[in-house]
Amino acid sequence: MATTIETKGNALTYETIEAEAGLKAALAMSRADLVDFVRDSDLKGRGGAGFPTGMKWGFCAAEKADQKYIICNADEGEPGTFKDRVILTRFADLVFEGMTIGGRAIGASLGIIYLRAEYTYLRPHLNEVIQARRGAGLLGHNILGVEGFDFDILVAMGAGAYVCGEETALIESLEGFRGEPRNRPPFPVVAGLLNNPTVVNNVETLASVAAIFAKGTDWFKTFGTDKSTGYKLFSISGDCEKPGVYEFPWGITLASLLEEVGGTGAKAVQIGGASGVCVPARDFTRALAFEDIPTGGSVMVIGADRDILDVAENFLDFFVEESCGQCTPCRLGNVQMLEAVKLLKKGECPPEFLAAVKDLGGTMQVASKCGLGQTSPSAFLSILEGFDDEIANRAPSA
Ligand SMILES: Cc1cc2nc3c(=O)[nH]c(=O)nc-3n(C[C@H](O)[C@H](O)[C@H](O)COP(=O)(O)O)c2cc1C
Ligand code: SF4
User: What are the residues whose beta carbons fall under 8 Å from the beta carbon of 170, sequence distance 6 or more?
Assistant: First the structure.
């Protein structure tokens, strides 16, 4: 049975979306118009990278193939992220509606939801919702009476690896191989699952698609900023009085967010999970938005009493464990960074080693094969920059 998770603060916009209004509106449009509609909303992917959804769908729609797929990425493995769990628990119909609209737009007849192993308890709930949708003519053959529009959805399980949230590793895992990222190009929109054109979208992106079709692009653009349209769910954890899942429009400043969640007085906030950046208190006027601090939605509040190096150590420990080991910068770089943090904590890190590790971080960002190694140095590098005084005090005594 699915667990109900309370959301905090303001009510969620998803609660106001009429069931199937989006799908009905989409079925009244041509396929090309569906892609243009999403483009017009300026929806950017909610999985972290912020890639424009309409552009991704447009690339896949343009491919000629007998079979295409749309995959819902429900791996949600980024530390500190739990908003997709809320959406899957409370608004699974909206996610499946978004997938169905996506299937229509790109010409896919099968959708797959890739569910993280830790959410196995949600599997029966998702299968029940899918079954109910089949019964209601919302999945299967000739959906809602539209001749020739066939689309169905399956649930597939992950096995607990963080890297399998990366879209090409996810596809490898779905094909039954080790979850290791592929070289790109070709991108999944050209050659994805079983070499067929494939769109991979985050859970929240797909729920947003259903809302946009139900209420329109102008409505969607009333939320957020010019460059970051819409609203967003944030998973808020750590040293605050009211952790939980909150909805805010893009553009909210960190100071306002901390006010809402009872986290004023924090020393820093880690945005975007372990692979994100650590923002010190002096920058709390900055905003959560693609044009300022982009994020998939994880916000970890770091209280005044925390040792910032404990934070860096915790994240790097995670990356050493989760690196798939395929490429050298990531496999060895995370180990070196962790070593530097451990030495700093003991007051034994030689300055030349710290300088070399900073350089190494830059190399990892450009030379790693996938997003894991490209982003794993970010937290430590931002801590070195944002907390230089505190770190300088940990240098070895002469
Ligand atoms: C190591 C790693 C883990 C990732 N984990 C997730 C995840 O759990 N969920 C997700 O939606 N995207 C994750 N991503 C991003 C996906 O590769 C992909 O960009 C995303 O699913 C695209 O969806 P969107 O365009 O709707 O955001 C991850 C990326 C990397 C590099
Ligand atoms: S960057 Fe890390 S996780 Fe990605 S392919 Fe290389 S070793 Fe594997």
Answer: 71, 73, 75, 114, 158, 164, 179, 200
With respect to residue 5, please indicate whether it lies within any of the assigned structural domains.
no
Share of the chain above pLDDT 90, in %: 93
32 with 152, same domain? yes
Flag whether the pTM goes above 0.90. Answer: yes
Which two structure tokens, joined as six digits, stand for 143? 């959906």
Q: Does any domain span residue 6?
A: no
- The model's confidence at residue 11, banded by pLDDT at 50, 70 and 90, is confident
Helices 83-90 and 203-215 pack at an angle, to 10 degrees, of 50
d(CA 201, CA 109): 16
Summarize pLDDT for 275-302 with one digit per residue, the tens: 999 999 999 999 999 999 999 999 999 9
pLDDT digits (tens, 9 = 90+) for 312-331: 999 999 999 999 999 999 99
298 and 313 inside one domain: no
Instruction: Determine contact, residues 270/231, Cβ cutoff 8 Å.
Output: no
Find the mean pLDDT for residues 58-85.
97
The answer to whether residue 126 is domain-embedded is yes
Residue 87 domain flag: yes
* CA dist list (Å): 122 to 131, 132, 139, 157: 14, 16, 20, 11
Domain boundary among 176, 199, 221: 221
Is there a contact between 67 and 196 (Cβ–Cβ < 8 Å)?
Answer: yes
Read off the CATH number of the domain in which 281 is found: 3.10.20.600
> Which atom of ligand 1 is closest in space to residue 168's alpha carbon?
17
User: Does the beta carbon of 370 sit less than 6 angstroms from any atom of ligand 1?
Assistant: yes
Regarding the beta carbon of 164 and ligand 2, being less than 6 Å apart is answered no
For ligand 1, say whether the CB of 60 is within 6 Å of any of its atoms: no
User: Based on the number of CB atoms within 10 Å of its own CB, is 282 exposed (0-12), middle (13-18) or buried (19 or more)?
Assistant: exposed
Q: Does ligand 2 come within 6 angstroms of the Cβ of 169? A: no
